[in-house]
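Milestone M4 deliverable, item 7.
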Amino acid sequence: MNLDYLHTLVSVVEHGSLSAAARAKRISQPAVTKQIQRMESELGLTLLVRGPKRQVELTPAGERVVAFARETLAGYEALEQELGVIKEVGQGTLVLAASTIPGEYILPALLAAFREEYPRIRVEMTISDTADVAKRLLEDTADVGMVGSKPRRPGLRLERLVEDEVVLAVPPGHALAQQESARAEDLQGQRLVLREEGSGTRRSVEQALAASGMALRDEDVALILGSSQAVLQAVEQGLGIGFVSARAAAAARADGRVACVALEGVDLARALYLAYIPERAGDPLVGRFLKFARERSA
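Output delivered:
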């Protein structure tokens, strides 16, 4: 069915007469009449009847067609807007900054799907720690970030995207490996292998322990390393025990290279967050990626 004819029918109803609709559409009244007649001929039904003072009224069939027309025209307008955004963001460069866990375990699959839908968009991503991601966003050297904790930096907007959990990784032969869970007090005297200060994983552990009235002791820290895989390698080599994301530990745990232990009374569940500057969300490319990430993670 011709969209122009549907628009004309709605215009006649909204303006109350053929002549008023003609003026609104800036076409002649005979042209409006002809469009309505063609619709009626195509459908085999009368849609409008003339009332007093040349006003028009809808027949029951006309009411159904007008409802359909409004729904169709609204859908077409939404489609035009969607396609307009696709045209705008059809090419360009999107710069992402991610902390280790989202950068290595969440974004690769998300970016593969995004690139499939927008093949002409070039994506550049750096992986560092949460503190550096926040710094890059605030310095405007990255468009969107994804982090494993909430950086305390004014000007950033954070949106919860997916759930994660931090676990205590220990060597398979370690005494704690034989237990399903350990007490926080059991960490004392152990050689701890930790992430660096700006790491979201480390911050999540410190915050969870603090909420339970506990803290890591400096004298127990044996190594500070810059990635989750480095922590896992150190644990595998028997250099200590360390906290990592369950996502990062999954393969080593499945292969029996490490064991993962929960801490009693300590909630190590956390969220991974989208991070961005609110003013940048109006950029078509940034806005499209944010919408895509939300929809894919819902």
